[in-house]
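Give me the fold.
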Amino acid sequence: MEKDLNEKVIEIELSYSVLTLKISKIGGDYHILLQGGDKPHIGCTVLAIPRASLKGGGEKSSTASVINVTGHKDEYLCRKLAEKMSAQTGAVVACTGGFHVDNITDGQMEEVIRKVEQIPLG
């Protein structure tokens, strides 16, 4: 669902919850707000900066810096999104947010990771 040219909301249905991404264009850069589960929160912020891939061959990649809230495990989701979008768009990307489900199972964690890895960005 696109609100306007500078904002896009993506809702990902999971078998046990919903993950919501709000992507905002800020000048030539982007901010991704990730939230979901039973207790949405800010568990981390990732800042990804585009660069040439270390593999060479003209491929694009990105380098990320992370700030985690102590005890939170949201880095993987936010890092994956920020680095992917930064490499694809050539823009600086910040991803902030958190996803929490009480007593989450290994299978449920694998599901949310798999869904995040499949999100088309850029």
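The longest strand covers residues 18-26.
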